[in-house]
Amino acid sequence: MTTNPFHLNFDDSYAQALPELVAASLAESAPAPQLIVLNETLAKTLGLSASALQTEQGIRFLTGNTEALAKQSYAMAYSGYQFGHLSPVLGDGRALLVAEHLTAQQQRYDLHTKGSGRTPFSRRGDGKAALAPMLREYIMGEAMHALGVPTTRALAVVATGDLIHRTGAEQGAVLMRVAASHIRVGTFQFAAMHTSPDTLRRLADYTIQRHYPALIGCDEPYLQLIQALVKRQAQLISQWVALGFVHGVMNTDNMTLSGETIDYGPCAFIDAYNPKAVFSSIDHSGRYAYGNQPAIAQWNVARFAETLLPLIADGAEQAIQLATQAVDDFATEYQEAWLNTLRPKLGLHSPEASDTELIETWLYLLEQQQVDYTQALRALAPAAQGNSEALLKLFRKPELIDSWLKQWQARLKHDALTVDAQVTAMNAVNPVYIPRNLLVEEALSAAVRGDLSVLERLMTVLKQPFTEREGFERYSVGAPAEFGDYITYCGT
Is residue 1 pLDDT above 50, yes or no? Predict the structure, then answer.
């Protein structure tokens, strides 16, 4: 373990335990690095020195340059099903695992760059990233964190001084991402396809030790690892869906074993409720549409389970039977997690059998009348107190919700909480502010022009998503019709 001016306590447990799953690689030198964003709150949480990170040496470190620390960095190997098609070798083509940082509480985090140049996995890519997509990852990660969703977060975004070429010439940038780890379903796929059974077992054991220590010493740790991932991913996806979040690229290399949201490329939040919502420019079939996310998560977990079959049982038939049952449990786990997440958003805290139908009818009405999802949920709090004006205004034909509204208000009276307690609880889980698509684009466009004030104001709003404040009214509504259909891009 080594200390340094940034108060970084690092070691390389992953590279040391699994050297066959990394490739030594160094970041390319940034010609004129300029710090655009430093997440000082996150730095403080990690016990890092924000002031040291803002020095010339610190800024170069944030681009992945570890020469001053005499520190090796690594590109991580993984495979992945991308839009249902297997890519046997992917890996960090424009990213590096710079270090694992241990906090004073002995919590371990990966510090991982994105856009730091070519690696052994780059293939024909330039290994670079543009400023706007890296800032999008910062915005989305911080918004999700404030909303209570497990997520990777950006420690910093640094403009490199490079010009990179995508649809045109764009400013280059590097993001330093913080995660509980970057072990993915695709990591296990790579190990299963390209390494030995011993490596696969060591990867599973390392993952259990790092993320599921309760499984250490269990009789069936590898089967229980599947079961644990089922629970963790069911909970995560239920949170996405409850907030109207569309990931956009749920490939198996973008599902983490830690249960964190990773890779904010073509992601977005819905305005009008629409299970078929797709924003990604490359998702032509709607595979990763908003409403498909639970099924895709289960499909990804199944691909994970396939990799562990040799570790689950000696006989293939028995291993398949056990793994299949574990994966099939996802539907039940997700339904339970979804109900437990949606119930309090509707003010329901004492479960009743009719709750599923009540919630599904609510969502059907939102879809049929193209109602803003976030605004509608927030408007339920005053409606619980008898003031339905704000809610009814959101519906084109408000009379169509009358029957449901009476049924819901009657259901609230059965609950253990008082009306005031229900309202307080609803306002604590139904945000006023999310990263609205128009507002995100405005912030990114201004930042690329050198004006960070729009981004800073947006982040001020998003860091307190449940608190309504004067002067921020436009941050709580969807885009006007002239904004048109919203399209997002991977940025690669």
Answer: no
Question: Which residue's entry shows tokens 């599921």?
Answer: 212
User: Average pLDDT in the 441-451 region?
Assistant: 97
Residue 489: the pLDDT is: 82
- Catalogue the long-range contacts made by 50-53 (C-beta closer than 8 Å, 24 or more residues apart): 52/5, 52/6, 52/7, 53/6, 53/156
**Chain center to CA of 368:** 28
Q: What separation in angstroms does the CA of 96 have from each of 10, 76, 221, 262?
A: 15, 7, 30, 15
SS3 255: coil
Separation of alpha carbons 492 and 490, rounded Å: 6
Mean pLDDT of the chain: 95
Spatial neighbors of 416 by CB under 8 A, at least 6 apart, are 349, 350
Per-residue tokens: 446: 């201004």
274's tokens: 């629409």
Active site residues: 253
H helices, E strands: number in the chain: 19, 12
State the amino acid at position 444 in one-letter form.
L
Does the pLDDT of residue 95 top 80, yes or no? Answer: yes
Instruction: Give residue-wise pLDDT tens across range 274-321.
Output: 999 999 999 999 999 999 999 999 999 999 999 999 999 988 999 999
